[in-house]
Amino acid sequence: MRPNKRDELVRKALQVFYRDGFHATGMDKLVVETGVSKTSMYKHFRTKEELILAVLRLRDESFRNWILRRVEETADTPAGQIVASFDALKEWFEEDGFRGCMFIKAGAEYQEADHPIHVQAAEHKRLMFEHIARLARKAGARDPEKLANQIVLLQEGAIVSAVLLKNGDPAEDAREAAQLLLETALA
Amino acid sequence: MRPNKRDELVRKALQVFYRDGFHATGMDKLVVETGVSKTSMYKHFRTKEELILAVLRLRDESFRNWILRRVEETADTPAGQIVASFDALKEWFEEDGFRGCMFIKAGAEYQEADHPIHVQAAEHKRLMFEHIARLARKAGARDPEKLANQIVLLQEGAIVSAVLLKNGDPAEDAREAAQLLLETALA
DNA sequence: ATCAAAGTGTACTGATCGGTAAGTATTTGC
DNA sequence: GCAAATACTTACCGATCAGTACACTTTGAT
Fold it and tell me: What range(s) does the HTH tetR-type domain occupy (chains A, B) (predicted)?
């Protein structure tokens, strides 16, 4: 089992799961799309669930890396970086093939709170929260945890609105609301 | 086809779809859970998709009725009613068997923007937005559409956070943020 | 009482689900 | 160059998927 082969499978599976959903994507479809044989597929991943968990790990890592880097390129103060996260979201929404947040979708398809896939999706959201909370503390907010929670609300809301309520510019609206929250929390 | 029989099937199917998801719920499971025969099932609904659309119509109607009534019972000024919508959300989150927003989940499982199920989920979100926008106009907000969009962001964010980020009290955090937005938009 | 609508159970279709068996080819490290 | 690991093809498993055929029973309005 060459490690890069496995990674390649995870990358390709990520695309298909993201595009078509988890239950709607069968292992046979993945076998066709990756060009790998079914036997090899099951050599690398013992079950579909194990594959999905690997996909979510990759997505978590690459998404958080991307947004962290993008935010640091845009602003250098903690408060500025919180605001910049909404500019990054806007970029993401405008990407070709944008289909919403993979973790919201994973949580929606695997709803039991103790299901491994649900747990892993929740863990991603917790890490995203932690990032904002760290910035809020560095910015000197009055109640950094609450501010971070509110910022996250705006982020999640913007994602959902970008998918379902194609009305207006959710990232921009969220950005302005976030700015107001920041000003109030720092005053 | 007695109409009440059909409604009963929709009500029961709603529970199962809400609990287990759309793709994960087969027609056979619904037949068992409703006690109806498969033949009758397909007399009432020509396809699974038609059943899901009927379920979403019922959910849209009853959910919007419920939140509208709850909001009117809690406050009588337009601004107060906007804030009260977050108290209603909090009640909802604390219900037994709360599993998030059925329309977010429908949009997540049927992702193509022109899929009938996706379209109907989006329509529900539009109607929810319209309700808030109406209140924002009556309250005399400076830019009622933008305010309504921001309120909706907080609502959607609270729902997602209630499902995935069990951290804190999303409805309360959203409520406070909404209050701040309102004060600023009305000043 | 009758007749049609609406209900029933059972058995079936072909396709697809996740996952496996058996045997063969191709890389890979030493 | 050789052996072991890895990947391959093909065919298969039992279960479930959405949906249908057919023959039978209950129900309700006239």
Answer: 3-63
